[in-house]
Amino acid sequence: MQTSIVAYPHIGKERELKYLLxxxxxxxxxxxxxxxxxxxLRQVHWQNQVDGSLDxxxxxxFSLYDTVLDTACLFNIIPTRYRRxxxxxxxxxxxxxxxxxxxxxxxxxxxxxxxxxTNYHYIxxxxxxxxxxxxxxxxxxxxxxxxxxxQLKKKLLLLGPFTxxxxxxxxxxxxxxxxxPALIRAYLEFFRCCQQEKVELLQLDEPALTLDLQQExxxxxxxxxxxxxxxxxxxxxxxxxxxxxxRDCYDDLIKLDFDALGLDFVExxxxxxxxxxxPFPTDKILFAGIVNGRNVWRNSYTASLNLIKxxxxxxxxxxxxxxxxxxxxxxxxxxxxxxxxxxxEKLAFGEEKIRELLLLKELATADPAADxxxxxxTVNTAKNQVKLLPLQTKATYEQRAKLQQQCLNLPxxxxxxxxxxxxxxxxxxxxxRYNKQLLKLxxxxxxxxxxxxxxxxxxxxxxLDVLVHGEFERNxxxxxxxxxxxxxxxxxxxxxxxxxxxxxxxxxxxxxxxYRQPMTVKWIKYAQSLTTKPVKAVLTGPTTIxxxxxxxxxxxxQNSILQLAAALKNEVAALEKSGSKIIQIDExxxxxxxxxRKVDQPSYLETAVNAFQFLHxxxxxxxxxxxxxxxxxxxxxxxxxxxxxxxxxxLEASRxxxxxxxxxxxxxxxxxxxxxVYDVHSECIPSVAELLTAIKQRLAVIxxxxxxxxxxxxxxxxxYKELAPSLKNMVTACRRMRQMLxxxxx
Length: 746
Ligand code: MET
Ligand SMILES: [Zn+2]
Fold this sequence. Notes:
The chain is of the alpha/beta class. The chain folds into 2 domains: 2-333 and 344-375, TIM Barrel (Alpha-Beta Barrel); 407-480 and 523-740, TIM Barrel (Alpha-Beta Barrel). 40% of the residues lie in helices and 13% in strands. An 8-stranded parallel beta sheet has the order 1-14-13-12-11-10-8-2. It has a 5-stranded parallel beta sheet with strand order 19-20-21-22-23. The N and C termini lie far apart (75 Å). The site of methionine has 12 residues, from loops. Its EC number is 2.1.1.14.
């Protein structure tokens, strides 16, 4: 029996890669330095795998931005507009990922999407008519060579063709099928190079096989792999799946000529059943994912050992593995100095998970009489209090809209923002100094109050209709709330990559969630005291807080969502009591953890909607409830967005949901709506003309009485210098539009 991981995280234990990339992008280091330092980081990661006594070393899991993009570049899937810039291969790569505006031209980045139901974002490759698919790089093999001195078994990782085709965009006149022959040729060429390089095992990652597959998908899968496997020669191939079971294709796959198959026993509800009902071929190796790669709790050894025994009894040749790449968990518990020891004992981050694999191997191969209880971790013993959420009936949207208009008296096409304002160095330093106890509470707050005042004056000058306080007290929209509710712990260093150089630090849910005291009220109350315009209170919603935290394993995440809704109800009540007339409950992560299989989706969505409605229903009908969702493909959950029954839904519309404008479902939404009029992640300042066009486009699908005008998302990554002209232009465009519209009957 051996051990392996699907992939090792590449951002670095101290986020080394993040800092390197950002230095390169700021032109502070050369390409050569970047490449050299990246190679050093790879060596560190390999050495950690050696030190962890894994039997396999994984190669080419490293990426300077994203491995899906790496695969697209490997096979020359690069749209002409990027080639035309005439940049180096490295800079073309970054132009695809981040866009480019410099002396050689201007080009927007490729789309970015959530990687299955994780909070990692991949770059969406774009196939176009003139795309000439062929193997054009030797990077994976060069990395293979970098491991020459390591003595353990080696596997080289590459994204498989099925998942590549499923996750890409097709912008020309041709669909995926057209590209299959060329793609097969390119992969076969890669196989040939692998053989030349004496690659021991090629791991083809095919997570898309855990999705619901239709007959045409199965046909595509069979076509790809019957041809690829026929041409593999002596190359050994591991087909690796994760994020669920492969119930739709398991029977087909075990008949194919793979040398090994990687299956997920953690999230794959039916994996064990599949393996037992159609016996796993004894001439293949099973890479069994039994250590959870997506959560931070220690493995339950008793259950794992039973599973291992079960598989061994079937005569299966086993490699024990993580259930997916370790990039979804933090590096190591050694970075956590403040966690209570009793909790630390129950946790396992990346390095600890590698040790767990070794331990499981030792226990599974040890004398069966040996006592294994000594290492059985205590399971989480938190209670599981779920408050059932009673749904009171509330006034209808139309009735509420009337009441709200009477109290708010807003103009047609009201303008607003999504909540956060620039998090300048000074704002971040203020928080940091306070956290390090270098600053007294009163001084910390004084700074924030001053910042709020500046922000309110700024918004008044610009002429926005609904103002916000700016969120200066929040380091992060989830951690801020987690720190103040009970049931969470926040970590010091548990970073995971979100996209490119960006990382997030999810809190850990360790117990039942309870409300302690008001979290946002004093800031919002102060902001409102400075202006006669309405200031909306902005909160993070229950589903988003849970989805952007590490969840308990002893209760379903849905129970935590309901607990949070019950807790946040107190905050909403406190806000109403202190005079808030508009409350925005952000749910940007609502779509993220949508189960991958259709059968599992309604139950998840019902909980998310139920939790939101519960908060909503606890408010008076005069209180306007807004919500904000962004950077996810919400067009297919539109009926559920409607069920939120929010008064105003503010959606991002520039990066992931351009198609929104063509979606007739909007006309049926029983809520006022904003489809972000400009991209907040771009440095470009939108002109009045551009913004006017954007507003007109929206008016073509949304009635004027129901349209709000706002940017795509929060403004925390921008500077006031950029914001002033952007928001001013937005208000100007909106005012011009108002003049062109017939007066509403009100
Ligand atoms: C990722 S959604 C962000 C919403 C939050 N209110 C902000 O403005 O930053
Ligand atoms: Zn957002």
